[in-house]
User: What shape does this take?
Amino acid sequence: MEHHKTYHSAEIKTATGALVIEGPITPEILASYEFHEGLTAFRPHHEQHEALIDIAGLPEGRIIIARDGQTVVGYVTYLYPDPLERWSEGKMEDLLELGAIEVAPAFRGSSVGKTLLTVSMMDEQMENYIVMTTEYYWHWDLKGMKKDVWEYRKLMEKMMNAGGLVWFATDEPEISSHPANCLMARIGKNVSQDSIEQFDRLRFYHRFMY
Assistant: This one.
């Protein structure tokens, strides 16, 4: 499967000025930008910058960024699921995982996350994929956002809905381990019925094992 990537951009107004939302971005351009020191949800900001540059260079990898001038202040990533997770077991070429979305604390509250998702779905090529994300409450910045688990879950669902992702049932053990955890996905209009059925089998792995 060929992975065509068509660049799109938008501009949003925030309390601190206008931000550019753009992508999919190339590794070279991403490397030329600064990376905000507040982007530390997954690892130190400079290491996360390097990780995103690597993802941007993958054939299927997509990075959409929010930037303030020459500084990246938010991003969303799309790539094939982790080989250690059940979602990779079908070796589906048309299944992408929304692996991470993060906005620096100083830029939250201005719909940056929603706009990152909206811009990422502007590319018509996304209609060729099932896009999924797994949400676990222990990854959420409850303290920084001053929200409880259910308030954050509602906020996260609303943000994912902006990209067309909706709740899907699954028997995946980690997701099932807490009611706030969830699987969300968007099935592109060009995805085949065979791929949809294969995704269903991955969602209900234990049901189809016997």
Observations:
- Helices lie at 27-32, 45-56, 112-120, 142-145, 149-161, 173-176, 193-203.
